[in-house]
Write a structure and sequence with these properties.
Layout lengths: L2 E7 L6 H14 L4 E6 L5 H6 L7 H5 L5 H4 L1 E4 L2 E4 L13 H10 L8 E6 L5 H9 L2 E6 L3 H16 L6 E8 L2 H18 L4 E8 L2 H9 L3 H4 L4 H14 L10 H15 L16 H47 L5 H26 L11 H9 L1
Parallel strand pairs: 1-5, 1-6, 2-4, 2-5, 6-7, 7-8
Antiparallel strand pairs: 3-4
């Protein structure tokens, strides 16, 4: 029985492995029995931070070449380490026999208070299975916007699969408490607004130059610099975790693995075939018979269609001829005699009308006055 904590992140480079290793050491220093499982199969970084490169790893157990107790690195600075294997990706494609072997391997593993998994940050089905099967998830992030965005994406992924426990947020490489709080508040606001999942602040690990120095020396900073600010932050987080009864939520490790493998199988379960895919393939004779039947139906329909077109054509021709005849009857020109008579009548009436106009409009002339000037003078003198 152990309390199982998965430590993961949405982005590489936020110090997830460093947090996993040093937190395990801090819990062990507090008096707990701790096992750290290096579950980052893309690149086993615990080996890099400790300088330990074992000959055997988890792949040897899956293939049945070694037992789990044979590969465990015992009592490294007070903790046990289960080494992963860089490049081992076939754990998600285990056969039923290999899955059973892996689950049974943890039956004989000793009891621990804490079983801590350091995962990769690729949001793969394996990482999700570790998260879904754990008692607690610690999501490591930083104050950078890209890191917070990837953290949100990880929370969204967990929400999709209905993870219903609060996820603990640890902000690493924090410049100050104020900046870390601002980053957490921004993340919480987004989560509360758009996701059903809940988050809680676990604490911060301050930006510390001694952390980089310890990485170069391949010794955890909690061991090399126990009084540095980063070590004090780790101790503060340990006290938070240790406040709860360690037995609360503890589970057998073989049950944890059963849950992990069940979740992976559920994700990779083949989709049901559609109704179209389930149709029985037809034999050649049946297929030919159906084709001939269809062709016969098409021919019959074409014959009917041809007859209908012919009838329509005849109907159009008949009605067209009747229409032409009616037009000829209505607009037939009069005979030439009738035209000539009408023309003469028009001319006669027009000439009479013109004479009347001349008579009306012609002015009447006055009597002509003789201009005999001599006669006029005679009359005047008399």
């Amino acid at each position: 029985m152990a309390k199982i904590i998965t430590i993961t992140s949405g982005k590489d480079g936020v110090g997830k492995t460093s947090v996993s290793l040093n937190l395990s050491l801090s819990l062990a220093a507090t008096g707990f029995k701790v096992c750290l499982f290096d579950a980052d199969f893309t690149l086993s970084k615990v080996n890099i931070f400790t300088g330990i490169y074992p000959e055997k790893n988890l792949e040897s157990v899956i293939l049945g070449r070694s037992s789990l107790n044979e590969i465990i690195i015992k009592n490294y600075q007070g903790i046990d380490i289960i080494p992963g294997n860089s490049g081992m990706k076939n754990i998600t494609d285990l056969t039923p026999a290999q899955s059973h072997t892996l689950s049974r391997a943890f039956l004989n593993l000793g009891d621990y208070d804490y079983f801590i998994l350091n995962t990769s940050s690729d949001m793969s089905s394996l990482v999700l299975s570790f998260c879904m099967a754990s008692n607690e998830i610690i999501l490591v992030t930083s104050c950078e916007s890209t890191s917070l965005t990837n953290t949100y994406s990880m929370l969204k992924k967990l929400s999709k699969y209905h993870y219903d426990l609060p996820v603990k947020i640890l902000i690493n490489q924090a410049i100050s408490g104020k900046v870390a709080k601002k980053a957490y508040d921004h993340l919480k606001e987004l989560v509360n607004k758009f996701l059903p999942i809940k988050i809680k602040p676990l604490g911060i690990v301050a930006l510390d130059k001694n952390v980089q120095a310890s990485s170069i020396s391949r010794t955890p900073f909690f061991v090399l610099f126990p009084e540095t600010i980063a070590s004090k932050c780790i101790n503060g987080i340990t006290r938070k975790l240790a406040n709860k009864d360690v037995r609360t939520g503890a589970m057998p490790l073989e049950l944890f693995w059963d849950n992990c493998l069940s979740f992976i199988q559920k994700l990779h379960k083949p989709k049901k075939k559609s109704a179209a895919q389930n149709v029985r393939p037809k034999k050649k004779n049946e297929h030919d018979s159906e084709i001939n039947k269809t062709l016969s139906q098409i021919k019959s329909r074409l014959s009917i269609l041809t007859k209908e077109v012919s009838d329509i054509k005849k109907s159009i021709e008949f009605h067209g001829s009747r229409l032409d005849k009616s037009k000829e009857k209505v607009f037939q020109p009069p005979l030439l005699k009738e035209v000539s008579a009408i023309k003469k009548s028009l001319e006669f009436h027009r000439s009479r009308q013109d004479k009347k106009k001349e008579k009306i409009l012609k002015p009447s002339l006055a009597k002509e006055i003789p201009l005999d000037f001599e006669s006029w003078l005679k009359k005047k003198s008399n």
